[in-house]
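Batch manifest, entry 17 of 40.
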Amino acid sequence: MRYFNTHGPVEIEQHYVVSRQALIDQLGMQIDQGKYFTIFAPRQMGKTTLLRKLDEMLAENPAYLPIPLSFERYETWAEQQFLNHFGRLIAYYLNEGFQASHHPQAEQIQKLLAESPIIDYLTFSDLFGELYRLAPECKVVLIIDEFDATPQEAISPLLQTWRTMYLERRPPHSLHNVILIGIQNIARLNFGRSSP
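Output type: C-alpha cells
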C-alpha cells in the first residue's frame, strides 16, 4: 500500500508521487542546449527525486555520461580534502561510464584518470579538455545534490571554474552541463563573489 513519504527520496512503488514530467522535459531541453542551471527549494519538495529522474533520463541516452553526486558530507571538510575526494569520485564515475559503454578509448581514458588526478580547479578543467580529445562525442553532466554543503572556501573558485568553462568553451571540453541542487539560492551561498 502506498503512503506519503516525508523523508528521503521517493520510491514510485511505495510512495505517492506527483508527476513532474513537464518539468523533466523542460530540464531535458536545457541539458540538450548545454545550459548550466540550479534547482533550489526547501526540504522535502522532491529535489532528490527529480535528480534521480534526470539521471535515469540521461543514462538512457548514449551521448551523455551523467555523474550524480551529493555534497552533503563535505560541509565541514577542508578545501583540499574536499577537492581530493571530489576528484576521486569524478575519476571513478568517468572510468565506470567509459568501461561500461565499451568505449574504444576506455583504456586511454583510464590511464589519463590515473595520471592526471583532480587536485585543484585547474586540473579539473584540464582533465575535461583532455577527455574531449579522447572522446569528443561524450557529454558529461554533473548533477550535484546538496550543493549548499560545499566547503565555504571552495564555493567561489568552483563556480568560477565552471563559469569560465561554460562561457569560453575554448579549448573544447567534455563538461556539457552542471546542475546544482540545494535548499539555498546559489547567489546567497556565494555572497556575490562571482556570477553564478
